[in-house]
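Lecture notes, continued. The same structure-token format from the folding unit now serves as the input rather than the output. Read the line below as a description of shape only.
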């Protein structure tokens, strides 16, 4: 589950050592004694509404640590993931890489590419969910200052004008969408052109139908074409056929979807809480947006409203490139600062996993409320499954948007791929 439009641009924060001021407690002041760290990240440290944390993290860490030469390279999406895969395979990754954790990170750990910081980071405060996201097989490889959960961003003005409330059941969701359609309002924006955005809703539908059906399939105690996956896909496809996602959802990018919501042309979008900053920014939208949990099936469903879909929103992992004691010490300093109240206070929208950081807006407060009530958080499937099957997963979900597609057959194709790459269902 990627989170912002592609930037595909690289900059070096160290090249702007105008960021670097003096510090009385610096361990060294001459350039020759500097320890160099390179960080690969996603966001540009610019004035973008959702980049404030990264911008200030880089600038203020450099000011406080002039003995460290910090090079930050912004790679965007999917550049970060793609370049990281190549670099990890060649054992040429930089000291720190932004990561969402999960099994993708775990694969790098299994390959011996990551640096175990379990002891060094054990006292760093943070939520259990965020800590678990950056751990693998009992070892901690990084930190996760921000978490994300998916939910319904709803246009409060549209709902009020139509005399509607955000539904708490899937059955009522259909009735609500039908009423919106009758009023000439597109119920959902999506961004299906970019492939990954439809995943969040499908994850919820599978959960609401079959509870931990994904966990069963992932552990090979069940299959990806079991009843829960098929019934959820059929609900999705029915909603698409009814026009809930507009006339041409496959032609709408994620950026387009954001604009559709921001201009009040659609009533809802199911996406991650990373959008709280944008949807709270009056320069981005004049609409009033709220955040709500995904509804449950009133009849026959297993999943609960307290089952959330989400994952690390911003996380950093250390690689074996930082195994040298001086580099390791510098990496730990960076990780600890990334998890500080001082650094996290600059974030304008995301849910923070660090105690003592206040929600920056009412919208983030609503998302934090949903997160705080979660009894379980399922990581994004395209981060929690092996890389060999994640792209085919999103390709499979694309077929749901084709009115004549046999979704069960498409899911069976994906299950065959899963058997090849993960293993057969255990009898």
């Amino acid at each position: 589950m990627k989170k912002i439009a592609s930037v595909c641009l690289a900059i070096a924060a160290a090249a702007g050592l105008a960021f670097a001021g003096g510090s009385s407690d610096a361990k060294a002041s001459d350039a020759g004694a500097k320890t160099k760290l390179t960080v690969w990240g996603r966001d540009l440290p610019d004035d973008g509404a959702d980049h404030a944390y990264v911008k200030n993290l880089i600038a203020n860490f450099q000011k406080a640590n002039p003995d460290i030469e910090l090079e930050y390279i912004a790679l965007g999406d999917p550049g970060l993931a793609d370049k990281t895969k190549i670099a990890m395979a060649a054992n040429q990754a930089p000291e720190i890489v932004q990561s969402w954790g999960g099994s993708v990170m775990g694969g790098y750990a299994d390959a011996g590419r990551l640096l175990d910081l379990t002891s060094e980071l054990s006292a760093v405060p943070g939520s259990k969910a965020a800590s678990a996201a950056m751990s693998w097989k009992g070892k901690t490889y990084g930190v996760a200052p921000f978490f994300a959960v998916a939910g319904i961003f709803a246009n409060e003005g549209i709902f009020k004008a139509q005399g509607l409330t955000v539904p708490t059941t899937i059955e009522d969701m259909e009735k609500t969408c039908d009423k919106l359609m009758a009023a000439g309002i597109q119920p959902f924006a999506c961004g299906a052109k970019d492939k990954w955005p439809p995943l969040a809703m499908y994850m919820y539908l599978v959960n609401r139908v079959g509870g931990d059906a994904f966990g069963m399939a992932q552990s090979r105690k069940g299959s990806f074409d079991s009843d829960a996956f098929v019934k959820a896909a059929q609900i999705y496809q029915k909603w698409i056929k009814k026009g809930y996602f507009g006339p041409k959802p496959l032609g709408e990018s994620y950026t387009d979807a954001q604009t559709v919501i921001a201009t009040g042309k659609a009533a809802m979008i199911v996406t991650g809480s990373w959008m709280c900053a944008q949807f709270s920014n009056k320069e981005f939208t004049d609409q009033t947006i709220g955040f709500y949990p995904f509804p449950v099936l009133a009849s026959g469903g297993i999943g609960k409203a307290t089952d959330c879909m989400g994952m690390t929103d911003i996380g950093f992992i250390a690689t074996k490139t930082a195994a040298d004691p001086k580099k390791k010490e510098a990496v730990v300093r960076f990780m600890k600062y990334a998890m500080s109240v001082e650094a996290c206070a600059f974030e304008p929208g995301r849910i923070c996993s660090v105690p003592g950081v206040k929600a920056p807006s009412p919208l983030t407060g609503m998302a934090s409320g949903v997160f705080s009530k979660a009894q379980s958080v399922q990581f994004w499937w395209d981060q929690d499954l092996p890389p060999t099957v994640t792209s085919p997963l999103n390709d499979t979900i694309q077929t749901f948007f084709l009115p004549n597609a046999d979704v069960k057959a498409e899911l069976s194709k994906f299950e065959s791929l899963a058997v090849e790459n993960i293993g057969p269902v255990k009898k």
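Point for the exam: The first strand starts at residue 35 and ends at 41.
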